[in-house]
Write a structure and sequence with these properties.
Chain B: Belongs to the 1-acyl-sn-glycerol-3-phosphate acyltransferase family. Chain B: One of its GO terms (molecular function) is glycerol-3-phosphate O-acyltransferase activity. Chain B: It is found in: Membrane. Chain B: This is Glycerol-3-phosphate acyltransferase 4. The complex is a heterodimer of chains A (196) and B (434). Chain A is mainly alpha-helical and 196 residues long. Helices cover 55% and strands 5% of the residues of chain A. Chain A is globular, with a radius of gyration of 19 Å. Chain A starts with a helix and ends with a strand. By secondary structure, chain B is of the alpha/beta class. Chain B is built from 13 helices and 10 strands. Chain B has a 7-stranded mixed beta sheet, sandwiched between helices. Chain B has a two-stranded parallel ribbon with strand order 7-10. In chain B, strand 4, helix 8 and strand 5 form a beta-alpha-beta unit. The termini of chain B are far apart. The chains are: A mainly alpha (196), B alpha/beta (434). Chains A and B meet through helix 1, helix 3, helix 5, helix 8 and helix 9 of A and strand 1, helix 3, helix 4 and helix 13 of B.
Chain lengths: 196, 434
């Protein structure tokens, strides 16, 4: 408990994170205390094991994929900035941002960034296409052992058939958006926040 | 020679004064603490002490907040505040909701797989990363107001001179006065009930017992939620119990051995604990003998931080005798009683206990329960747990306290997978029929 006080965030860091992610001051401090409580090693970064220690996440069928989304390519540790950057995808979409900077890049919680997050849950090898195999992998994670390979295969085939437009037997990001369900993620990608 | 002669009478005077004051202090100690303890009489001084402390804590917190605002420092917010609101909808409901809202098509027959189905799991996953129900139960509860103990202050910065002085005074009182007083009393040897009562006084424990007419009787099993080893002292000072537990080494082991001499307790070797049948047999033998004291068991199996009640192990509920549930709730403002055994050992914990302001708790004796027809041990255990949680104002969780140290079982994940599969496959059958 003593170490927590000594590693309180500096004001400048909080401002930077606020600009980058759009979270409010109190939300950032609250999530920082969450971050430090998950960080058992107390070295300022989280590893995959730290995430897996959350029981509700460990029993989530897509738990491993979600954890993966926090770690940049090939890395095993994520610091607080990276943690917040990923969580920023789950903030509500605002039409007029207060700190709107014309030069700034698209906000992390924009519609297309949220969809990209979901797309990347499927697209493990980051080749910007969801292949039949990748679709099958995710399906298998969600159903466990309860559905046979053949049935699962036919579900995957049907899905690709419906979504694929250019006939390459895989789903690109543009095809993914057009599947028509993207509006929900924009609704469901948001949490109901208590703190403002 | 001269200076020495001068010193001697002065020295003597000092010694005499010290001697007198020590004797006086000791007598006061005896009169005001030990004698009433033996006769179970209270002076009401402790309640006054409690009220005064609370007022001081409020002032201290107010000062910290004001100081933080003035200096533009950051205040650490207690992590137990929820950041997101979670909806308790089921897997099926939510996935159907997702599909319904997003689809252009008319959905009379539920479609099978949609790529948007992952959104449900994704959202649940990220929600649990932001805030989950389990991991926060294994660390000490965080307080809204500071209680002048460094160990519960996360904003420890110099805010004002007055506050620091008050804190310093608190340290002096707690370590120089309360701690030695309690060490002395703790080590004294007395007969069973008297001993426990003194421990209770020693810790300045202010315990409120509710519904004492439901106190456990011989031949029954007393079941309570577990927060610290002090639970035992608290319950045992209001009635005689037979304890069940593992034989520990070190300080605990010595205490356990001395307790056995006073009363027939049931101690197990570590190897015997693994053999559940042996444990169950010894417990039921004890219970059948109605001259023997009621057994005291903590079915959670480990210390939880007193904000929730976790899964009760079904072993004690299989024995088939009357169960007397007891709910224990500590007031964390005066000193956190939770023992985080992975963070500090027994001696360290006792030191913290004895140097906190007081142990304030409420004990509720709930009406006895027995297993009903057609109810198995697990359902009975949940029923008892729900009653204890309701009475103590604690959150009733299904999660296993063993998650403090171990991993969660895969069966929970498999359950979710099964539910989702039913959604997909169920519609397949409808399709083939139509």
């Amino acid at each position: 408990m003593g170490s927590r006080a000594s590693t309180l965030l500096r004001e400048e860091e909080i401002e930077e994170i606020k600009k980058e992610t759009g979270f409010s001051h109190s939300q950032i401090t609250r999530l920082y205390s969450r971050f430090t409580s998950l960080d058992k090693g107390e070295n300022g970064t989280l590893s995959r094991e730290d995430f897996q220690r959350i029981p509700e996440l460990a029993i989530n069928p897509l738990g491993d994929r979600i954890i993966n989304a926090f770690f940049p390519e090939g890395e095993d540790q994520v610091n607080f900035r990276g943690f917040m950057r990923t969580l920023a995808h789950f903030r509500p979409i605002e039409d007029n941002e207060k700190n709107k900077d014309p030069i700034a890049s698209e906000p992390l919680n924009s519609r297309s960034n949220k969809l990209l997050f979901a797309f990347r849950l499927y697209d493990l090898d980051r080749d910007d296409k969801i292949s039949r195999d990748e679709l099958l992998q995710v399906l298998r994670m969600m159903v466990g052992v309860n559905i046979s390979d053949e049935q699962l295969g036919s579900i995957a085939d049907r899905t690709i058939q419906e979504a694929d437009q250019n006939g390459d037997n895989s789903i690109s990001f543009n095809e993914f958006i057009k599947v028509g369900n993207f509006l929900i993620f924009c609704i469901f990608g948001n949490m109901n926040y208590y703190l403002t | 020679m001269g200076p020495f002669l001068d010193f001697n009478p002065f020295d003597n005077l000092l010694c005499i004064l010290l001697g007198i004051s020590f004797t006086v202090w000791f007598t006061l100690l005896l009169v005001f603490i030990i004698v009433p303890a033996i006769f179970g009489v209270s002076f009401g001084i402790r309640r006054l002490y409690m009220k005064t402390l609370l007022k001081i804590f409020e002032w201290a917190t107010h000062r910290i907040e004001r100081g933080a605002k003035d200096n533009n420092h950051l205040l650490y917010k207690p992590y137990s505040n929820a950041i997101i609101a979670k909806e308790p909808t089921s897997l099926e409901e939510e996935i159907n909701e997702i599909r319904r809202r997003g689809s252009n098509r008319d959905l009379d027959s539920a479609s099978e797989f949609e790529m948007s189905d992952i959104f449900y799991f994704c959202r649940r996953g990220v929600e649990s990363i932001m805030d989950d129900e389990v991991t926060k139960r294994f660390s000490a509860e965080e307080l809204e107001s500071w209680n002048l103990l460094t160990r519960s202050n996360y904003n420890f910065q110099h805010i004002s001179l007055r506050l620091t002085v008050l804190w310093g005074l608190g340290v002096v009182i707690r370590y120089g006065f309360l701690l030695p007083l309690r060490m002395k009393n703790f080590l004294s040897e007395q007969v069973h009930l008297m001993c426990y009562r003194i421990c209770v006084r020693a810790l300045t424990a202010i315990i409120t017992y509710h519904d004492s007419e439901n106190k456990p009787k011989n031949g029954g099993i007393c079941v309570a939620n577990h927060t610290s080893p002090i639970d035992v002292i608290i319950l045992a000072s209001d009635g005689c119990y037979a304890m069940v537990g593992q034989i520990h080494g070190g300080l605990m082991g010595v205490i356990q051995k001395s307790m056995v001499k006073a009363c027939p307790h049931i101690w197990f070797e570590r190897s015997e604990v693994k053999d559940r049948h042996l444990v169950a047999k010894r417990l039921s033998d004890h219970v059948e003998d109605t001259t023997k004291l009621p057994i005291l068991i903590f079915p959670e199996g480990t210390c939880i931080n007193n904000t929730s009640v976790m899964m009760f192990k079904k072993g004690s509920f299989e024995i088939g005798s009357t169960v007397y549930p007891v709910a224990i709730k500590y007031d964390p403002r005066f000193g956190d009683a939770f023992w985080n055994s992975s963070q500090f050992g027994m001696v360290n914990y006792l030191l913290r206990m004895m140097s906190s302001w007081a142990i304030v708790c409420s004990v509720w004796y709930l009406p006895p329960m027995t297993r009903e027809e057609g109810e198995d041990a697990v359902q009975f255990a949940s029923r008892v747990k729900a009653a204890i949680a309701r009475q103590g104002g604690l959150v009733d969780l299904l999660w296993d306290g063993g998650l403090k140290r171990g991993k969660v079982k895969d069966t929970f994940k498999e359950e979710q997978q099964k539910l989702y599969s039913k959604m997909l496959v169920g519609t397949q059958e409808d399709r083939s029929r139509s």
